[in-house]
Amino acid sequence: AQTVTQSQPEMSVQEAETVTLSCTYDTSESNYYLFWYKQPPSRQMILVIRQEAYKQQNATENRFSVNFQKAAKSFSLKISDSQLGDTAMYFCAFMKHNAGNMLTFGGGTRLMVKP
Amino acid sequence: DGGITQSPKYLFRKEGQNVTLSCEQNLNHDAMYWYRQDPGQGLRLIYYSQIVNDFQKGDIAEGYSVSREKKESFPLTVTSAQKNPTAFYLCASSPNGRTGSSYEQYFGPGTRLTVT
pLDDT-based confidence at B81, cuts 50/70/90? Predict the structure, then answer.
């Protein structure tokens, strides 16, 4: 079974600054996917970014980028130029390849962006 | 617009009553999922369905039941056997989960259930 750990329950950052959220996972699989989902106060889960384990290049989506370290089983999310609208819970999730798109979630990190 | 709808947004019930939460999607997705989220915690899988007329238990299925009679609908019933039913419930869907490809899940807006 896979486990996903987010060791930072809460974080804060000043508007326009950069913040990094940590995620580690444990798996014996070699082919898998990793995701970061955002849950703002509205509680709607929104996909932020996706990384395929077979790709060495780190995924990037505008101000969001990841640092994927496969050997270390680490998958951190970097938010650049933080905006007030980035305030949310952030969940790291693991998906094994060809396994029915099943997700295993971490416990989440609450991010507060301060003006 | 394509998406996932969950109704109602807030639901209140008395202890001992069964209650059914609705989840509908018009994304033509084969797979659908139900999650439970407790305050300050991550999502835990209750049930999932990869195809119509088939579903499997997730990690916390006790006290819950589902049906999948139509591709677009996956209702969740919270029975009186569920000891702590008050929670936020999220429904999700994804494209065909039975092939060799992997796809992210898309989520509905959720239903907040309060049982007193």
Answer: confident
Asked if the bond preceding B85 is cis, omega within 30° of 0, the reply is: no
Which pLDDT value is given to residue A102? Answer: 84
Tens of pLDDT, residue by residue over A57-87, are 999 999 999 999 999 999 999 999 999 999 9
CB A11 within 8 A of CB A20: no
Using an 8 Å CB-CB cutoff, list chain A residues near B100: 98
Q: Which B-chain residues 17-56 have CB contacts (< 8 A) with chain A?
A: 31, 40-45, 48, 50
What would the 3-class secondary structure string for A9-54 be? Answer: CEEEEECCCCEEECCEEECCCCCEEEEEEEECCCCCCEEEEEEECC
Cβ distance B109 to A105 less than 8 Å, yes or no, reads no
Task: Return d(Cα A66, Cα B26) in angstroms, integer.
Answer: 31
